[in-house]
Amino acid sequence: MRLLTQDKFVKKLSLANPIHFLALGFGSGKAAKAPGTFGTLAAVPIVLLMQQLSLTNYLIITCISMLAGFYICGKAAKDMGVHDHGAIVWDEVVGLMITMIAAPLGFMWLALGFVLFRFFDIVKPWPIRWLDAKVHGGFGIMIDDVLAGIFSLIGVQLTVYYL
After folding, report:
1. Tens digits of residue pLDDT in 68-115
2. 10-22: per-residue pLDDT in tens?
3. Nearest by Cα to 36 from 98, 106, 93
4. pLDDT digits 0-9 by tens, 85-96
5. Three-class SS of residue 4?
6. CA–CA distance, 117 with 82 (Å, rounded to integer)
7. Sequence-ordered list of residues with C-beta below 8 angstroms from that of 116, at least 6 positions apart, any chain
8. In which region does residue 121 sit, left (phi positive, over 0), alpha (psi from -120 to 50) or beta (all else)?
9. 127 cis-preceded (ω within 30 degrees of 0)
10. What confidence tens digit (pLDDT) does each residue in 36-46 have?
11. Sequence-separated (6 or more) residues with CB below 8 Å from residue 71
């Protein structure tokens, strides 16, 4: 069993290229199975560090990461010659950042956010699935995960409120 993908499109990217490195979630997107889940896992240490910041700084970094993601994901997809290849996981990194906005500290909350985000990213309820199918380019790659992150953020915050 291979741990890293042998996909011909992924081989067009180089981890030495900063754009590709970020698009591939620091290399996690090269996982042979479930690259989106590994990309989300790669976001965990980033989110843990960001949770030490003020909410304002957390939001600024999240917004910059999202805006940069439009370019990062679009450029990687163009270099690969494929729209929204599974190895492009920067959108998952940003999705978890969004999910964990103003979340309480602690493993339980991070685990809840992780599970909710993966659920919404995989199941893609309306309008996430529609956006995923209809919107293309870097914006299209990012927007479904941004929305999955917002759905997950709502889920985390409702859980915080009711517990």
Report:
1. 999 999 999 999 999 889 999 999 999 999 999 999 999 999 999 999
2. 888 989 999 999 9
3. 93
4. 999 999 999 999
5. strand
6. 24
7. 99, 151, 152, 155, 156
8. alpha
9. yes
10. 999 999 999 99
11. 19, 138
